[in-house]
């Protein structure tokens, strides 16, 4: 059977189409005053042709095909045996970054609802939802509008899915979500609230770590503003806390990750040649560096970053700072600078994890933050990509011990991406090792008792990625939840979705005694899946 959406506000539902019949019952309640967007041209979903909308003459034609039994049946057997993922790891799927638009409306609501129902039928445990600072607190500090997110949360609750919320305090070019307008206006008069590289280029998608506790936002510090945002979120979503909402992650930097924007100039990056640049040249970072240098008795070291570090597009091993033997990174000065640079990162992360833990301490949800997998140049002694990103991790020093200790101190979990990556598929020139880096971070988490929430790196772009993910889920005992990123046209494409369906089914194969094997009827039901095709 086929569900066709071609510019009509109605969806043609097959008589036995369980997915679409139940999705049709998902509505946005008047209490949330949801205004479903049907014409957002800025949506990344539209650009990727996942274009189910409610009203528009310019819609791309779209069909959702479902292989279904003549009589819908539950995915639970008669003895109520529920499937569980490998080693008890829960499986979540991330919603598109632009699910809620910059105007606080739900993009492609019908498509989202159908996709959520499909995931529910597959046996997915829950959903990850990005919640943007620039959408909720857009125009005025302290004025919050949660309309779109509340409506979406209600849909997720009705479907019986769990929800992990990602609080995003950064901007996203991909999702066309900016920082709050009032923050950008402050940045126009004081651009030093943003990161700055050696050439003077600012990164304006997140605030500099040096201003975390500086009252640069209308007399308040970013930490104070973030805390008020979290408190408003907690109040607005209190009916869902601990039931539908089971976890919250707090954005810790660029793209929500704990790192400097060391690779923010991709136009200058020559494939895997460069290792990024140090981001320490805004006036607040330089002021901090100057004070640190004077306190260490070397005031001249506080005038700027390393003069012999390479540019974005330069191979790091050709520079004096990162070269393998007798590089500046191994000198007394190198240790001074890299210690200060990483301390700024960890101090910032600790402040945000602390405010999140304090805000949500009395609700039964998990708190976490994302640590990036900066695996390029990992096989060198200096690990230049990690150093520019803020992780003082080299052949002589484990830079992740302090990071994991910070998460343990605040009883937070670590989100770790790249679970689909394998060493043998990395370009030789990058001297990369995602598997060894995952092992290093995991080892530190094991010692500190910090749980890991795994993620993949991208959809349908990593050969044998599903096999690698399952391998990680089976071997990493510290991992309690895995989030597959993320829904969209690529996710539901004929090339990807059947493989994802098989991946979920493989995860949902418990070790059974012979008396508890699934019946043929159960196997038939479990094999049902949805395939989304763009006509």
From TrEMBL:
Keywords: Carbohydrate metabolism, Glycosidase, Hydrolase, Polysaccharide degradation. Residues 517-526 have a biased composition (Basic and acidic residues). GO terms for biological process: starch catabolic process. One of its GO terms (molecular function) is beta-amylase activity. InterPro entries: GH, Glyco_hydro_14. Gene3D superfamilies: Glycosidases. It catalyses: Hydrolysis of (1->4)-alpha-D-glucosidic linkages in polysaccharides so as to remove successive maltose units from the non-reducing ends of the chains. Residues 510-535 are annotated as: Disordered. Its EC number is 3.2.1.2. Pfam families: Glyco_hydro_14 (PF01373). Belongs to the glycosyl hydrolase 14 family. This is Beta-amylase.
